[in-house]
Amino acid sequence: MISWRKHYKKTLIAIGLLLSTSASFYGQDGDPKNGEKLFKANCTACHALDKQVIGPPLKGVVERVKTEGGVDKDWLHKWIKDNKALRASGDKYANEIFEKYNKTEMLQFPNLTEKDIDDILAFTTNPPAPEEKKTEAKTATDATAAAPADKTTTNIVIISLLAIAGLLVWILLKLRQLVKLGQSEELAGLNETRVRSFKEMYEKFHYVGKAVIAILAILAAYGVWNWLMWIGVYKGYKPEQPIYFSHKIHAGEQKIDCQLCHSSAKYGKVSEIPSMNVCMNCHRTISEYNADHYMEPGKDKAFYDGEIQKIYAATGWDPAKQQYTGKTQPVEWTRIHNMPDFVYFNHSQHVVAGEQAIINSFNKKNPNNKIDVVCKACHGKIDTMNVVQMANDFTMGWCIECHRTTEVDMNNGYNKEYFKNLHDKLKKQYPQDGGKITVAAIGGLECGKCHY
Q1: Which parts of the sequence belong to the Cytochrome c domain (predicted)?
Q2: DSSP-derived pairing of the beta strands 323-324 and 317-318
Q3: Spatial separation of the C-alpha atoms in residues 176 and 188, rounded to whole Å
Q4: How would you class 56 by CB atoms within 10 Å of its CB: exposed for 0-12, middle for 13-18, buried for 19 or more?
């Protein structure tokens, strides 16, 4: 009996060790929830759980490396921390993976602790189920909130109909009075004094007629002049583009700097339309829209995913094989801001030299609508626009007004040296401005600055 109990005890210990070893091997000794956070912070640039991105899908990676390479979790720890060193040591499976994925070198993560890696592996082995959205509760709340609004709308409609009915009754009564008046002798007397022709009317009221014609002529001339002055002014113009691109999502929600995509605005005359390769810098790994916290009304995940697929079609990218096919399609963007050929405008001059001066001037004139990026002074708050539109007039008068009110930054080292002697002269020349030097004061109103 004692011997049986002794063997039974050993068996239980062995089973326990086996289970704990198995759980450890399959990544279950980590914290999947913490692993999810670490995965998103460190791995999502190159990996997804269920599909190949730059690297292979990582769901069930612990089991996969055991089956394919006969290696355990300790091997994964070494691979994640420093795969380059593991390959250099001659590890056969490590070099096979390197060759299999086009010799794309994985980043090293020496900063991750053993526990961090265990948590990540636990997440890839058994990812937590996504929390169900409480749509039913939200719908019930919305319905309850909408009920009083519907009742108020019904009351307004009833009151409006009663008012219209009352107005119709009043009109009918007045018409009846007019009919009675037409049958009276009083109307016959009025008919005798009535003007019977246009000639008689003109002779009787010719001074008034001439005055009215003169006023109409002036108004017509002003209307034609005003129409001519606004030719080519398209404030509010927002055309539909071949690929839907929301600046609110990219510049607003994701805080992407304007000059990351429009790099030539800082160094060149023209702010170019970014090439599709610029889009692929991010969308090579972002193949679907997962930002549930923001979706434009009327659009869903399928819509945004479809627009990303248009980027792939334009660049000839095969997301399944993670390689370019060489078959590209041009994207015909619709230009929004377009200066006439006789106007010279240099973006770099405003974005670099005039950046702080323009921001300061704009914020001074618009204390309740301040900007933090110089681009917004002309293009509006682009980070709030789903569809980009022309935010200002872009007329000559609009530009001149800006030159008259924008002060030159005399604390700038270059300006301080360049306008050293001019500064005192301009203070005397423009005493009404309190010695402030505006763009107009240094030649900003000269025709040849913008037209030549």
Answers
A1: 30-128
A2: antiparallel
A3: 18
A4: middle
Q: What angle do CA 335, 341, 345 make, to 5 degrees?
A: 80
**Which residue, among 110, 101, 57, has the nearest Cα to 79 in the 3D structure?**
110
The neighbouring-strand residues paired with 317 are 324
SS3 content of the chain, % helix, strand, coil (to 5): 60, 0, 40
Residue type, position 276, single letter: M
For the chain, the distance separating the N- and C-terminal CA atoms, rounded to the nearest angstrom, is 110
pLDDT tens for 161-215 read: 888 988 888 898 888 777 666 656 665 566 666 655 666 777 777 788 788 889 9
Q: How open is the CA angle 163-164-165, to the nearest 5 degrees?
A: 90
79 close to 72: Cβ distance less than 8 angstroms: no
Burial environment of residue 316 by CB neighbours within 10 A (0 to 12, 13 to 18, 19 or more): middle
Q: Record the tokens describing residue 94, joined without a space.
A: 């490590």
Comparing CA positions, the residue from 129, 123, 132 lying closest to residue 43 is 123
Contacts of 326 (CB under 8 A, 6+ apart): 316
Centroid of chain to Cα 437: 36
What is the maximum span of the chain, computed from C-alpha positions, in angstroms? 140
Regarding predicted confidence, which is higher, 21 or 132?
132
The Cα 289–Cα 189 span in angstroms is: 82
Domain 2-125 has CATH 1.10.760.10: yes
pTM over 0.85: no
Return the amino acid letter for 191: N
For residue 432, give Cα distances in angstroms to 101, 126, 357, 361: 71, 74, 20, 18
